[in-house]
Design goal:
Layout (H helix, E strand, L loop, with lengths): L1 E9 L3 H19 L2 E6 L4 H7 L5 H9 L2 E6 L3 H4 L8 H11 L4 E7 L12 H4 L3 E7 L9 E3 L6 E3 L5 H17 L3 E6 L5 H14 L6 E6 H10 L6 E4 L1 H15 L6 E5 L4 E5 L16 H13 L3 H16 L15 H14 L6 H5 L7
Parallel strand pairs: 1-2, 1-3, 3-12, 5-10, 8-9, 8-10
Antiparallel strand pairs: 4-5, 4-11, 6-7, 11-12
The structure holds 3-isopropylmalic acid and manganese (II) ion.
């Protein structure tokens, strides 16, 4: 198979985790005989620095012509410290989501038994956690009219959704539930928001087309609590843009770190893959960022290309690495490995399978292969 991929490493730790993800992509290409051609582009603070704008035209063009897009991370404290800055790295991300019409963002969440003892939560709550968040990605507060009055003491962000956007992601979520455990939880705030009213009505209508799926309606505040109290009860969570953003970071605590979670953003024509974590500029360049979210984003990309065996091989390699205690500092501060070691282990596993590893040698900081 031949595929063209636009790669946008972005800011902070983005480039170093993307580098490891690309090595995994190359390993998959080599093992399964595929050609992945990467075209590197700018976005975010890196693009502002070079071109003055967060999303150059050339980047948009490249993404539109690619089979998939791989992103690193975006954002820089320089802009965060100026709350009314006119140009921001994240604008690039929002604009790209709109340009590519990526209506839905999917974030799978699973827990790893080998990491249970490192979690702030009790083990009994972590067992059997396996759900996926379907987040609307092109509507809501982020995208609509913004206003700050002249004196700067009054602001607003319009929250607007179109029924078609709600429907698009809802259908995907119903279809996923059909293939999973037949349970869909709509998270909204219907007692306070008109936008939730339309969403609930739309989902109720659609439910008739998926009679085997049990639909549960949960208020956002309650959902935030249930996600910690009883996360294993969830199968497919469907929610709006901002709620999905918040819930997915909360969900990452269950797995061990935001650095472990991958996402895919999809629309009718385009698909984009990205770890969910932020750019953590302070950690950039120290070789300590967690590359697993970026690497698992490649697995989601393989699934999108219908290369399921390849996707499973990446997940198998990640599982092997985590279950043998090879994790970065965000997961285990006392016993951690570098970004590059974790990435190399996963790539080597894909190329050669596990029998070539000598676990004791790796733990001693020696060669990764016998
Ligand atoms: C995410 C990120 C972005 C978002 C930020 C960087 C704007 O947090 O993809 O989850 O809020 O959508
Ligand atoms: Mn987020």
């Amino acid at each position: 198979m031949k595929k063209n991929i636009t790669v946008i490493p972005g800011d902070g730790i983005g480039p170093e985790v993307t580098y490891q993800a690309i090595n995994v992509l190359k390993a998959i290409g080599k093992r399964y005989n595929h050609q992945f051609k990467c075209n590197y582009q700018l976005m975010g603070a890196a693009a502002i620095h070079k071109t003055g704008i967060p999303l150059p035209e050339e980047t948009i063009e490249s993404c539109l012509q690619s089979d998939a897009v791989l992103l690193g991370a975006f954002g820089h404290p320089k802009f965060d410290n100026d709350p009314f800055a006119n140009v921001r790295p994240e604008q690039g991300l929002f604009q790209l989501r709109k340009h590519l019409q990526l209506f839905a963002n999917l974030r799978p969440v699973i827990t790893y038994e080998s990491l249970f003892h490192l979690s702030p939560l009790k083990e009994k709550r972590l067992k059997g956690v396996d759900f996926i968040i379907y987040r609307e990605l092109t509507g809501g507060n982020y995208f609509e009219e913004k206003h700050v009055n002249d004196v700067g003491d009054e602001t607003s962000n319009l929250c607007k959704f179109h029924k078609s956007e709600i429907e698009y992601v809802a259908r995907l979520a119903f279809e996923a539930a059909q293939k999973r455990r037949l349970h869909l939880t709509l998270v909204d705030k219907v007692n306070g928001l008109e936008t939730s009213g339309l969403r609930r009505k739309t989902v109720r209508e659609l439910a008739a087309d998926y009679p085997t799926v049990i639909v549960e309606y949960l208020s956002m505040d309650n959902a935030a609590m249930q996600l910690i109290l009883d996360p294993a009860r969830f199968d497919v969570i469907l929610t709006e843009n901002l709620f999905g953003d918040i819930l997915s970071d909360e969900a990452s605590v269950l797995t061990g770190s935001p650095g472990l979670l991958a996402s895919s953003s999809i629309g009718e024509e385009n698909a984009l893959f990205q770890p969910i974590h932020a750019s953590h500029v302070q950690a950039a360049g120290f070789n300590l960022a967690n590359p697993v979210g970026a690497i698992l984003s490649i697995a989601l990309m393989m699934d999108h290309f219908l290369l399921h065996e390849e996707a499973d091989k990446i997940r198998e390699a990640v599982n092997w690495t985590l279950s043998n205690g090879f994790v970065t500092k965000d997961i285990d501060a006392m016993n951690s490995y570098c970004t590059s070691t974790i990435g190399e282990l996963i790539s080597e596993y894909i190329l050669n399978d596990v029998q070539f590893f000598n676990v004791n040698n790796i733990a001693a900081g020696q060669m990764t292969i016998i």
